[in-house]
């Protein structure tokens, strides 16, 4: 697997690790914050080889003897947290709500099972192998947060001021964004996806839109999404338009008395934002939005949602090649 061999400076003291791969799952962005002899990492990669690659890429940027003292997890999905265990002794900060909902996330053991022991000729087994089979979950254990907060939390990395702002429930129950006021930079976690259709497990979409409005209200120059290239505010505004358009389409289907499946099928067949990857995520987005429209109080079942998306992809996309990371790709042109 080809991964970025170097980090890209996006602002003073901020270097992004951007695997830059669209059309598949699990390649999240991370951000190294370094100042003097202190360093922090915003999110950790999905598995050991990716985390080792990130550690090697970060090493030249750290002053002698500097170690990552703080990890921030923007939310609890494994592609942002499973690498925590390679930073022993670091403070791991997330929202209280993310910590409370960790039990809803598939564990590394469950991911290993889903990618190796499910039926490869059935939609879920095929889909999990296709998009998650290249990651090494075997032997991984989750290192949970050591510190949680609600609302806002400020701290410093050396001289760099960091502000964590809770914006969930949106992508998950407990999302946060990371604001660097002096650098006019925001690290959004997965409330923002670019290049692919987003996936939002908790919702409602209005919550994701509100999170995007919070990002824009900080007047950032530079924005690092959870997945996709480093951008400016205009791309987040366009993404906000996408969310509101999709919300309108889903609500109209619900008002017309159509099932979530029928509404998602109608949106998919219309070619909605057809240049984006992973259209099957619309099925998850629609199912999650219907849960809110129907006042369903239960927690979403992530595997059941993935299974629904896998069925559509199995039918429509079975023979398409699996995207691979671009050689040495670090930043969008
Ligand atoms: Zn992610």
Domains, number: 1
Tally of strands: 12
Following the backbone from N to C, one meets helices and strands in this order, namely EEEEHEEHHHEEEEEHEHHHH
Text of the CATH class: Alpha Beta
Examine the secondary-structure arrangement and name the CATH architecture.
Answer: 4-Layer Sandwich
* Bound compounds: zinc ion
Q: Could you say which overall geometry the principal axes of the C-alpha atoms support? A: globular
- CATH topology tier name: Metallo-beta-lactamase, Chain A
What is the radius of gyration computed over CA atoms, rounded to a whole number of angstroms? 19 Å
Mean pLDDT: 93
Number of helices: 9
Low-confidence stretches: 327-333
Q: What gap, in angstroms, lies between the N and C termini?
A: 22 Å
Give the secondary structure arrangement, pairings included.
Layout (H helix, E strand, L loop, with lengths): L7 E4 L2 E4 L12 E6 L2 E5 L5 H11 L9 E5 L18 E5 H5 L7 H9 L6 H10 L14 E3 L2 E6 L2 E7 L9 E5 L4 E9 L11 H13 L4 E6 L5 H23 L4 H10 L11 H13 L8 H15 L17
Parallel strand pairs: 4-5, 5-6, 6-7, 11-12
Antiparallel strand pairs: 1-2, 2-3, 3-4, 8-9, 9-10, 10-11
Helix pairs in contact: 3-4, 4-9, 5-6, 6-7, 6-8, 7-8, 8-9
This protein binds zinc ion.
The site of zinc ion has 7 residues, from strand 12.
